[in-house]
Design goal:
about 230 residues, alpha+beta, Pseudouridine synthase, 2 domains, about 25% helix, elongated
Length: about 230
């Protein structure tokens, strides 16, 4: 009898400061197979749900990537950074002490729905065959075109001092760092993303995800002759 080809989907809570490829490499080495990939990059400083597909399930990666994402996190107003997160040094912009909750809610409403968004320079998008973050790290500026995206929900869950906590549901290709930049521009204070966690991809939830270290130990304990 011919053995059915191996395939598996892993829901993983990506640790902070790990790249998405770091996680894939760890799973690939534990499984001892080459065919492993992830369904949607998370920046190194972000945490949360990463879908990793192995074997025949890698055929489903594009399907998972196309599903709606949900994020929670914190923006800081009054300053910005070159990357719009804490990968680059913080640059003061304007005193945000006059900003009220109503101002934040109105700005968030302007960034909700079908919008055009310019991706950040420090992103994995390819322009002329090169990742734009590679050009950015060399100090080469690349002209980024605005792209259509959809922000279905942009909920402000806390506003205190210069910090804004949020929950965002959005389509594939939405950059939360760019929403931080755009929010800061609307408020006239600048803004950057202090933290980000992906809590959902389609119907897959972070609450169902595995902690990476324990998952790797579980995989290594399996018999591998059937993979």
């Amino acid at each position: 009898m011919q053995q059915e080809a191996y395939g598996e989907v892993f829901l993983i809570d990506k640790p902070r400061e790990w790249t998405s490829f770091d996680v894939v490499k760890k799973v690939r080495n534990a499984l001892r197979i080459k065919k492993v990939g992830h369904a949607g990059t998370l920046d190194p400083l972000a945490t949360g749900l990463l879908i990793v597909c192995a074997g025949k399930q890698t055929k489903q990666i594009e399907t998972y990537m196309g599903q709606e994402k949900e994020y929670t996190g914190t923006f800081v107003i009054g300053a910005t950074t070159e990357s719009f997160d804490l990968e680059k040094p913080v640059i003061p912009v304007a005193d945000p002490s006059h900003i009220q909750l109503d101002d934040v809610l109105k700005a968030a409403a302007q960034l909700t729905g079908d919008i055009l968004q310019v991706p950040p320079m420090h992103s994995a998008i390819k322009v002329d065959g090169k990742r734009v973050y590679e050009s950015a790290r060399k100090g080469i500026e690349v002209q980024m075109e605005a792209r259509p995206t959809q922000v279905r929900e942009f909920e402000i869950t806390r506003f205190q001092g210069d910090e804004i906590d949020f929950r965002i549901s959005c389509s594939k290709g939405t950059y939360i760092r760019s929403l931080a930049r755009d929010l800061g521009e609307l408020l006239g204070t600048g803004a950057y993303m202090k933290s980000l966690c992906r809590t959902r991809i389609g119907n897959f939830l972070l609450s169902d995800a595995h902690e990476l270290t324990s998952l790797i130990e579980e995989i290594k304990a399996r018999p591998h002759e059937n993979l």
